[in-house]
Amino acid sequence: MPELPEVQTVCSALRPHLLGRNLTKVTLNVPKVRNVLNKRTLNRAMDAGPVQDLRRRAKYMILEFPERHALLLHLGMSGAFRICPAGTEAAKHERVVWDIDDGNQLRLIDPRRFSQVEAVRLALPGGEPDCLSHLGPEPLGDLYTAGYLFQASRKRKTPAKVFLMDQTVVVGIGNIYASETFFKSGIRPTRAAGRLTRKDCAALVKNSRAVLRQAIKRGGTTLNDYHQPDGSEGKFRIHLHVYGREDLPCRKCKTPVKRITQTGRSTFYCPTCQS
DNA sequence: ATATTCCCCTGGAAGC
DNA sequence: TGCTTCCAGGGGAATA
User: Fold this and answer.
1) Model confidence pLDDT, tens digit, residues A200-223
2) Which nucleotide is nearest to A261 (CA to C1')?
3) Span A141-164, mean pLDDT?
4) Averaged pLDDT for residues A76-88
């Protein structure tokens, strides 16, 4: 997926199409995407009135309607939203289609069907649903500090990269930006989280923020599936230092980039620049 | 409590 | 050309 920068990009692109609009109809082309996809509860949210807000929390999007009704949206690994005029020919793997009252449609396209669409109630207007309460702080917010990360990592034996991708520690950092963050910080992703110094934590916080901000600026990273809602690609790929560069020379020191597997996911790092 | 492993699904690329 | 294997931006449940 869609890590934080991609979700942020999608969210920003969709907002002008949806704010203040009524969603008049939803069509489910699959019985189930991931989780509960109940047409009756989706309609209940949509029928509450026009869209009040669309915001990102972690890698989720919250589409808010009046009276604390909301749709919780997640793109999974391969989900994408498109806005197009009603009647436009269906793309392959179109899973859910919403009719908007301006003649356009919001369409969820997702080959792998890991995406999530669920009607939820918010604790407060502008808030989040209970099912997101386990999530850690936003990486671009004030709660994500060196001190926080240092405290959270004490006595943790899990590899530091796995730790940073743990959404209960800090949200939004996925497989690509984790590798990039560790490269930028000069830290081996295999190091036990509990062995990170306060200085390491400061570097990780600073660099994860920088990487995410840069990626947002470029509209995210397109590898295969990910596209912005207007169909264009994210432009951050050319800025990747290690991700997807196994055996290619490190951009700093020319040492071949190494790929290892951590909890089933690929990790890329430079054996010279990162210790 | 924390740390791995497996699974959800489909398609593209690489290997034989 | 065609078959097989591996791999993929996530995350949750089930195991150790």
Assistant:
1) 999 999 999 999 999 999 999 988
2) C7
3) 97
4) 95
DSSP letter for A249, please. B
- How many CB atoms are closer than 10 A to CB A32? 12
Share of chain A above pLDDT 90, in %: 91
Å between CA of A138 and C1' of C4: 42
As annotated, the active-site residues of A are 2-3, 59, 265
Radius of gyration (C-alpha) of chain A in whole angstroms: 20
0.85 cut: is pTM over it?
yes
Vertex A58, ends A56 and A64: CA angle to 5°?
35
Q: How far apart are CA A121 and CA A116, in angstroms?
A: 16
Strand boundaries in chain A, DSSP class E: 23-28, 53-57, 60-64, 69-74, 80-85, 94-100, 104-109, 116-121, 258-262, 265-269
Sheet containing A94-100: order of strands = A23-28, A94-100, A104-109, A80-85
Classify A192 as helix, strand or coil. strand
